[in-house]
Amino acid sequence: MRLRVLCALLVAGLLAVPTPASASSGFWTLTDLAAQRVQIADKVAAAKFGTPSPIDDPVREQQILDSVAAKAPGLGLDPADAVRFFRDQIEANKVVQRGLYARWTEQPGTRPPERPDLGTEVRPVIDRLNAGLLTELASTRDARARRSCEVRLAVTVRLVDARRGLDRLHSGALSESVRSACSRF
């Protein structure tokens, strides 16, 4: 019982954090960029829904992973670890796309009114987010190597989730997108 009360007080105190800059974990920017990448999946899904373009795009995915692997050493990152982190980003994005496809199929009135252009509107945003995520992986290298990483990252995920007001689909995808941030870095 005392542990439950202590945990409740800890979470309440963390949720009372007034600004992102005061998030003590050092993972705020990394997690917020991952949340933005999860949210851009809405536009990816809107661009593809009702077209022959499948959710899975192995060519584009490999381009992202190859780019990450090539840039990682220059930032002091192991290419395999960086690729694993970005594979999680891609998979989280597809979780959102599949969830939205199911929603839009079941509830046609919730479909997006317009189809954004993947090449000119959506992919440049994803590329910018990817560059930011890669930079943040490098800048959080020491924090991600600590034993406390998983707990601190989980708290930051909840804070970013609350600040961005993510629904269940996007919240779950955010957790998935950063699941490998702490391991083996």
Structural commentary:
This protein is mainly alpha-helical. It is built from 8 helices and no strands. α2 packs across α4 (79-106) and α2 packs antiparallel against α5 (118-139). The N and C termini lie far apart (36 Å).
Estimate what percentage of residues fall within beta strands. Answer: under 5%
Percent in helix = over 70%
| Uncertain runs | 3-10, 14-24
* Main sheet record: none
- The best one-word shape is globular
- Indicate the mean pLDDT: 89
What gyration radius follows from the Cα positions, in whole Å? 17 Å
**Distance between the first and last residues' Cα:** 36 Å
- Tally of DSSP β-strands: 0
SSE run: HHHHHHHH
- Structural class category: mainly alpha
Give the helix tally: 8
Briefly say what this structure is.
The chain has about 180 residues and is an all-alpha fold.
Task: Set down the secondary structure blueprint.
Elements: H1 2-15, H2 28-48, H3 58-71, H4 79-106, H5 118-139, H6 141-145, H7 149-164, H8 168-177
Helix pairs in contact: 2-4, 2-5, 2-7, 2-8, 3-4, 4-8
Main attributes of the structure:
disordered N terminus; globular; 185 residues; mainly alpha
